[in-house]
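User: Continuing from earlier, I have the next pair ready.

Assistant: Great, send them over.

User: Here they are, in order.

Assistant: Folding the first of the pair now:
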Amino acid sequence: MSVIDIHRAHSLDKAHAREAAETLAKDLSRQFDVNYQWEGDLLKFKRSGVKGQLDIAESDLHIRLELGMMLRPFKSRIEQEIHSQLDQIIQA
């Protein structure tokens, strides 16, 4: 199992942090066919070969994804996409 573990500081209020997380989830869903759903302030991701979550804290977004063997070759691409999306949505 390969793991992507990203912490990103933010200065957004809770509503805007949740919007940013939703934007990221929609993009990952579209690009990598990942399903997601909210459980309180926790956004859970799942599909065959991937599971993980995005946790919204007061000043930090924490994303942790576990990639199965079939998606391991795409780890750097997925991680790069997450960083790119976070760069755009946190500064917005």
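And the other member of the pair:
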Amino acid sequence: MIRFIPLMLLLAACNTPSQAFRDAPVRTVTVDGSTFDVRIKDLYAEALRTNAQYAPRMGPIGGRAAIAMEQVSGCRVHDISGDQAVIQARLDCGSGLPPKKRGAKYFECRKVEGFPDRASNEPDYILNCDPVPLQF
């Protein structure tokens, strides 16, 4: 039983919303074979894809998520961001768009210099990374 605890913890995190949407009510919607947990907060929406589906990039998943968010909110999706698993959007409900939110930062890195690692003799690199704020 104890060996299954890590697996249960991993699976429990599959449909956990981002911090901004934690207290928002959830509604499950399926669009063209993609199932999403959709949460709406003010003029923002978040759709978490919860089904197992081959999706190496956002591609058609983004359009399906937008349809799901429009069905739940009753508003038009103006723009989306995120990846194939968690999609966030700004909603246009007729009263104008909400401002773009600044989210968590990610880092943009560049290789500065390479040198061989003593143990493996494989090249190792020094990276120069700058934080870049995400917006949606």
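Worth noting for the second one:
Confidence is low (pLDDT under 50) at residues 7-13. The two ends are 42 Å apart (CA to CA).
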